[in-house]
Amino acid sequence: MAKILVTCSECAEDIPLTPKRVSSRICVDNGDADYRFSCTACSTINVKPTSPQMIERLEAIGVEIELWSLPAELREHHSGPMLTHEDLLDFHIHLSDDEGVAQAIEQLLI
Ligand SMILES: [Zn+2]
What we know:
Blueprint: E1 4-7, E2 14-17, E3 22-27, E4 33-38, E5 45-50, H1 52-60, E6 64-68, H2 85-95, H3 98-109
Parallel strand pairs: 3-6
Antiparallel strand pairs: 1-2, 3-4, 4-5
Bound molecules: zinc ion (ZN).
């Protein structure tokens, strides 16, 4: 069985792992890829960037590959001013006003 030699970013141990102990994912939108494993020496979960070419090699030896997409919200067009820290503070204050929140929800439902 193939072994993958990985290095833990926490304890710097070189660890040979079977393909089932490594998982990988690649973004279908931009090709960003990474692989993940749990260090057998210190139990740290490692996530490391890699290349689409390395993903192909990992898949060839049996590593599970997950495909993912960027959130659809990134493709939405936004207009208007940017949200500021002060806007968030105002929103926080408004949320503490139960009656005001109830009235705002009622207006949305009309
Ligand atoms: Zn480790």
